[in-house]
User: What shape does this take?
Amino acid sequence: MKAAVIGDSVTLNEVKGAMPAVGSFAALRMTLLPMLAALLPVSIRPAHAQLDYGRSFTVTAGPAKVGLGDSVTLRFRLTPNDRDLLTDTLPRPVDDLPAGVRILSVDRLVRGADRVFTGTAVIALYRPGKRALPVFGLPWVQVVTGHRGVVTHDPIEIEVASTLPAGNPALRDIREPDAPRGFGALWVGLGAAAAVALAWLATRRRVKPTAPEPEPVTPPQSPPPPDPYTAAVARLEAIEAQHWAVRGDVARHYEALADVLRDYLEAAHGVPARERTTTELLWALPPRLAEAGVRRRIHEVLADADLVKFARRRPPPDEAASYTGRARDLLERWHRAGPVAEELDAIR
Assistant: This one.
């Protein structure tokens, strides 16, 4: 049988002439299936072998072997898909931390000129042996389709050496050295002479008058720090006095006001607003801070600051002045909501 090309017709007689003699249907099937698979067009082969999403998230740990309690540096490298948009650049563990693992610091990923995001994290390990490191993830969203997900890296392990050798060796007693013979009388004489010298010095010591003890001086007490609301109002007044928008620095004006609002939520209500985007913050606010139409006001104020910061929008000075009043009104509404309460937010 001559070599077949995709699309050529092959008769059964030609196939029989090209294959060896077989004695059963099973042997015939094992012989025909590879030949028929080679003649299949490429378009009807399994599609999953041709998919490539172009998304890669890897992590390397160093050093490869550490001692108990030593720090380990994790280096992240993320190559996103062309249609992906990261909603947060701070890697977070996707599961609970393994026993004996503590996170010391995590840096936000920074995008390089090659569109690759890189960053580091430092952890400490307090259990000997081979230990699995925590798996970190980053949330992403596709702008066109709206699909969301979390990209994670493969789990890795590291060797942690114990501080003592294996086998738990027993401790040995330390024996004092024996005194050399013939020196006992000498030591006794030296001891008697030292006692006589100390007695003579005691008789010649003059009694010095005791000085009166100084009275304890109470250090001046510093005034207590201002409450979060008073501090936030003072920052708003200082920003308004700078007149950045009139001098052409509108972005600084909007960014400073947004930072005041986010810092107040953390200090007064325990909401980690600095670490979250505007959308995440809206879902994380407890109901008492986002009721009666306040949620829409929060979205408008923070979204305007995001447009100025990220989309390079430059509103006129009069609009920037009204933005100060909107930020002050939102701060007063939060202040009237009352002190922080034990509530669970939507995102932990």
